[in-house]
Amino acid sequence: MKLTALSLFSGAGGMDLGLEQAGFDSVGALEIGGTQRESIRLNRDWELIGSGDVNELSRSLTPKSLGLRRGELDLMAGGPPCQPFSMAAQWARRGRQGMLDQRAETVLSTLRLIERFLPRAVLLENVAGFVRGPGAALQYLEDEIAALGKRCGVTYRPYVSVVNAADYGVPQNRRRAIVIFMRDEVPFDWPAPSHADSPRTAWDALYDLTTSSAPGATGKWGELLPSIPPGENYQWLTARGGGPELFGYRTRYWNFLLKLAPWLPSWTLSASPGPATGPFHWDNRPLTVSEQLRLQSFPDGWRLAGDSRAQVLQVGNATPPLLAEVVGRALRRSLTGACSVELPRLLRAPAPTPPPTSPKPAPLPRQFDRLVGQQPAHKGAGLGPAPRPAFATG
After folding, report:
1. Read out DSSP for 219-252?
2. This model's pTM is above 0.85
3. How far is CA 192 from CA 74, 121, 258, 308, in A?
4. If we measure between CA atoms, which residue out of 88, 126, 100 comes closest to residue 9?
5. What is the pLDDT of residues 353-366, one digit of tens each?
6. Does 40 fall in a domain?
7. Is residue 88 part of a domain?
8. Model pLDDT, residue 81
9. Distance (Å, whole) CA 83 – CA 92
């Protein structure tokens, strides 16, 4: 039995692909980015609706325009832009605004589309700050969806969880908020973590990829990578690490000079990494786009439009397709009453060979010798720089 799905903020197609593998038929995709729209066209014939601007289409798109009646759509899914709720927003000049951030207008537009379509289920994916912490959107969402339900004579029950994609076989530790609303008391059971005790690793994802055109490390600090063991970051070069003291302990972001460990899942990929932003390959270089796609659980052959920076942005912003497939399969069981649990199609098999052993770190390049010495560490919790105060509402 095929179910219908409408996707919002489709990006490079990660959510859509996962739902496709879970048995949902796309009735359309809303994506405003020209490069992202081209990426979708390179891979699928999903209908790209209008301009893709959710704010604009929330005032004009109707079920009838997609060949549906109100209440007939099975699933509306998407991930509104995460910047107002991200960790980085807490440090910005006007951070911690949450739903007061102008970029959160897309959440309001999503609510308008929910009211117009009244889908049987809604799936929203975002950063953890979307549902908890200063400026979270969850309470607002629950209140507004309860109100629209009263206006329309339906009820929506919320299901909320912050999950780690690695617990479901994605070879990447990536914590995401999943918010689900089920209409008219249809129950939903969260999928049980299938890989919490045996995660797929970076080696499982990358062992057989060729890297003849892999980029080299750049920037002021790139030559330090060979001096850091796999699985470590700049803290190896602090008073509490195993190398020369070059930095103060906990004075940099965690992903500064962060290197993959082949025997562990990857750390979260960044959409806009700087030259010293990891995770880096254990071979002391940036990851290729093909490697990043693997770590996000895209299948081989998935193509991306644009230059390398645009491609990295698309991969880093994507919903891991395997995570979308796992959640989509759970939604399918709820909506159809089916009981079968199938192995996800996008789950990659473990590598047939063990990961390489960790090499001994290289000596510090000589040009950094003058920087070695006792460095001031972070002063402790609550004693360093603080996020900006919450934006005043009155």
Report:
1. STTGGGGGGS-TT--GGGGSTTSSS---S-TT-S
2. yes
3. 23, 20, 30, 36
4. 126
5. 999 998 899 999 99
6. yes
7. yes
8. 81
9. 10
Nearest to 174 by CA among 215, 136, 218, 205: 205
What is the pLDDT at residue 2? Answer: 85
Looking at residue 69, which CATH number applies to its domain? 3.40.50.150
Phi, psi (rounded to 5 degrees) for 140: -60, -45
Instruction: For the chain, state the CA radius of gyration.
Output: 22
- State whether residue 214 is helix, strand or coil: coil
Domain that holds residue 193: 3-198+319-336
The torsion angle over the Cα atoms of residues 367, 262, 126 and 321, rounded to 10 degrees, is: 130
| Cα(258)–Cα(261) distance, integer angstroms | 10
In the chain, the percentage of residues whose pLDDT exceeds 70 is 91
Nearest to 14 by CA among 324, 344, 383: 324
Q: Which of 12, 17, 54, 82 is catalytic?
A: 82
Which of 103, 78, 76 has the alpha carbon at shortest distance from 89?
103
The residues pairing with 175 across neighbouring beta strands, listed in sequence order, are 164
125 domain-assigned: yes
Q: Is the pLDDT of residue 391 over 70?
A: no
Query: Among candidates 55, 35, 53, 43, which has minimal Cα distance to 16?
Result: 43
pLDDT in tens, 283-340: 999 999 999 999 999 999 999 999 999 999 999 999 999 999 999 999 999 999 988 7
Token code pair at residue 225? 């990578």
State the distance between the two ends of the chain, measured CA to CA, in whole angstroms.
51
How far is 101 from 94, CA to CA, in rounded Å? 9
User: Which sign, positive or negative, has the C-alpha torsion 52, 56, 60, 61?
Assistant: positive
Number of domains the chain contains: 1
The answer to whether 152 is a known catalytic residue is no
Tens digit of each residue's pLDDT (9 = 90 or more) over 168-184:
999 999 999 999 999 99
CB of 207 closer than 8 Å to CB of 356: no
- Residue 140's CB is within 10 A of a number of other CB atoms, namely 16
DSSP 3-state percent helix, strand, coil across the chain (nearest 5): 30, 15, 55
Cα separation of 308 and 288, whole Å? 9
Residue 180 lies in a domain: yes
